[in-house]
Amino acid sequence: MSAASTITNLLKVIFLVLLILVITLGGIYWFDHLGMVDYKNYVGPFEKYLPAFMKRGVEVSEDPLLLEEEFFKKREDILLARTKELELEKQVFEQRSLELQEIEAKLSEEANRLEEEKKC
């Protein structure tokens, strides 16, 4: 046997072993989907090394109102943000109101002082 045929045969063996491994993992995944095998028992420790399509994710519930729930959550977030914004504007308004009252008090004091000076 020549070295080239030995390398070719070795590559064939490696390819076939990898193919068997992929078919085995795919079978375990499919049997888990059918409910015949528990996927986590066999693949759980090695799951971080698997490609994304073979990893198990969080199951998505088939809730027909899911879109409305997300819409209302988003709407609630927007309303909360708007409420906070309005509270900040109210604080600024109250602060400006106090400043204007102080200015009004100073002006009335000044007006009183000028009236007293006029009387004298």
Task: Give a description of the structure.
The chain has helices at residues 3-34, 39-43, 66-119. The chain is an all-alpha fold. The chain folds into two domains: 1-59, no CATH class; 61-120. The model has no long low-confidence stretch (mean pLDDT 85). The N and C termini lie far apart (131 Å).
Write the topology of this structure.
Blueprint: H1 3-34, H2 39-43, H3 66-119
Total separate domains: 2
What is the SS-derived class? Answer: mainly alpha
The radius of gyration computed from the alpha-carbon positions, rounded to a whole number of angstroms, is 38 Å
- Average pLDDT works out at 85
Which consecutive residue ranges, at least 5 long each, have pLDDT under 50?
A: none
Helix-strand topology string: HHH
Give the terminus-to-terminus CA distance: 131 Å
Major sheet size, sense and barrel closure = none
Q: What proportion of the residues is helical, as a percent range?
A: over 70%
- Based on CA inertia axes, which overall geometry fits? rod-shaped
Q: Total strand count, please?
A: 0
- Percent strand equals under 5%
Number of helices: 3
Keywords:
single chain; 120 residues; mainly alpha; 2 domains; 3 helices; rod-shaped
Task: Write a compact overview of the structure shown.
The protein is mainly α.
